[in-house]
Amino acid sequence: MSKSNDQFPDGFLWGGATAANQLEGAYLEGGKGMNLADVMPGGKVRLKVISTPGFNFEIDKEKYTYPNHDGIDFYHRYKEDIALFAEMGFKAYRMSIAWSRIFPNGDELEPNEEGLAFYDRVFDECLKYNIEPVVTISHYEMPLYLIKEYGGWRSREVITFFERYATTLFNRYKTKVKYWLTFNEINGAVFHPIFGLGFSPATEDVRLQESFQGLHHQFVASSLAVKACHEIIPGSQIGCMLIYAPVYAIDCNPANVLYAFQEEQLFNYICGDVQVRGEYPAFSKRFFKENGINIKMEDEDLKIIKQYPVDFISFSYYMSRTEKKEKTAEEKAAGNIFSGVKNPFLQASDWGWEIDPVGLRLALNQLYDRYRVPLFVVENGLGAYDKIEEDGRINDDYRIDYLREHIKAMGESIEDGVELMGYTSWGCIDLVSASTGEMSKRYGYIYVDKNDDGSGTLERKKKKSFYWYQNVIATNGQEL
Predict the structure, then answer these.
(1) 458 with 470: CB under 8 angstroms?
(2) In this structure, are strands 375-379 and 420-426 parallel, antiparallel, or unpaired?
(3) Domain total in the chain
(4) Of all residues in the chain, what percent carry a pLDDT higher than 90?
(5) Of the residues 354, 379, 412, 438, which is catalytic?
(6) Angle (nearest 5°) at CA 50 between 338 and 41
(7) What is the pLDDT of residue 335?
(8) pLDDT in tens, 283-303
(9) Which residues are paired to 354 by β-bridges?
(10) Cα torsion angle, 168, 81, 386, 457, sign
């Protein structure tokens, strides 16, 4: 066991993170409407299927399985799971609310009381153990009706529906939830609009135009949510949520360095600049012009965006990205939504995601230097195959090693001067993978007995990492 310096501040929000659509299950219970995740098939074909132009957003059980329908049954087992989080010592639990549990179609005038009551119970259970809920308002589960009838975030009308939804949450949970996030990994839409924006472009030619138009609608919606949150819940904090990856050039060839720099600007900073600085960055003007992107705006849009920036930046960090201007298919690396070329200096996970804890220190420094607002690492973790030993133990030392090095990197960034609010590692309990719909891609400190084919007892078991993380929290990161 290694020691670190006393780097993490008092009140640091240690915890874990999940998403409603990946663990709740009960997809037709409690008055919930259908959402995007309900029609996403399981298995490694998931991303290809849902990103194919013409995807009809229908369930086809003859061809596919749908693991999100059952998740890990958190809907019925939340008390058991939150008790386990409390046993680890969680200070915070980052979770999301399923939009279609509150507004089943998304465009109703009145919310579904049964859905609201469910989250009341979840928050009450968290607060019983002094666990601070950190709530994502929209996390890859847009109501299916808004996708089919309105075209997802292509439609400006969705701003009104989201504002009504967010305001409903703030009014209902104003005494229970202090920390809010607007849109999960909002910049991921640059690569795959299907998850965050709720549509799959008909052709590659229109992808950028439609994606940035949809993002603009989300920027306005996010700012209106910030306004409402501050008005309804005094002392609340509401942040944006990015997927962040430092982009390295494969070598010192200036052409590759420039390409990596431009990719980093496009992916990492456009959304952050709009939501934190309150304006589109200077480089976006040329990018939009060269790519034929013409964003339709209403007169007050830029004023609203400027007037209501977020309070902090939360982000996911799983890997860095290495780039070169001209690359072949053989050079490509696997990745979380994005992919660059293979970095010869990095090892990779079972799913090909490169492991780079130094990249997290870079990410924290880059974000803090650019924005000077508090940061919050709300996703980070290792998806791996776990094995139950003959004695019933799950010795996931590889996960402990991964998390230890990333927590060390966070500590170094605090020494560098970064203001870091907390750390909620991803998938603190095993859940359905977002990118592949697999249960075998496990992230948790808690093992859930469920397999890719849907079989299993759903029994919860503590892994070795459970006890390790328990001690990390108890020592405020001093013992790693």
Answers:
(1) no
(2) parallel
(3) 1
(4) 89
(5) 379
(6) 110
(7) 67
(8) 999 999 999 999 999 999 999
(9) 348
(10) negative
- Give the integer Cα–Cα distance in Å for 107 and 148: 12
Residue 384 exposed, middle or buried by CB count within 10 Å (0-12, 13-18, 19+):
middle
Distances (CA, A) of 51 to 42, 201, 426, 431: 14, 8, 24, 22
Residue 238 lies in a domain: yes
Would residue 7 count as lying in a domain? no
Distances (CA, A) of 244 to 238, 239, 315, 364: 18, 15, 6, 9
Report whether pLDDT(15) > 50.
yes
Q: Are 430 and 361 in contact (CB under 8 A)?
A: no
Q: Please tell me the predicted confidence (pLDDT) of residue 2.
A: 46
* Cβ neighbours for 226, distance < 8 A, ≥ 6 positions apart: 182, 238, 308, 309, 310, 311
Q: Tokens representing 362?
A: 């870079």
Q: Distance between CA atoms of 340 and 323, rounded to whole angstroms?
A: 5
**CATH number of the CATH domain containing 272:** 3.20.20.80
Q: Cβ distance 425 to 381 under 8 Å?
A: yes
Asked if 350 and 433 touch (Cβ cutoff 8 Å), the reply is no
pLDDT band at 332 (very low <50, low <70, confident <90, very high): confident
pTM for this entry: 0.96
- What is the DSSP track for 72-117? T-HHHHHHHHHHHHHHHT-SEEEEE--HHHHSSSS--SS--HHHHH
| 459: nearest Cα among 65, 16, 69, 81 | 81
Rounded to whole angstroms, the Cα distance separating 356 from 212 reads 30
400-458 pLDDT per residue, tens? 999 999 999 999 999 999 999 999 999 999 999 998 899 999 999 999 999 999 999 99
Q: What percent of the chain has pLDDT over 70?
A: 98
**If you average pLDDT over residues 190-209, what whole number do you get?**
89
Residue-wise pLDDT for 144-182, tens only, equals: 999 999 999 999 999 999 999 999 999 999 999 999 999
220, part of any domain: yes
Comparing C-alpha atoms, which of 157, 153, 227 is closest to residue 186? 153
Q: How many CB atoms lie within 10 A of CB 142?
A: 28
Distance CA 446, CA 84 (A): 8
Q: Is 479 among the domain residues?
A: no
Cα–Cα distance measured from residue 225 to residue 170, given in angstroms and rounded to the nearest whole number = 9
Domain that holds residue 114: 13-474
**Annotated catalytic residue 412:** no
Sign of the dihedral through C-alpha 420, 81, 77, 122? negative
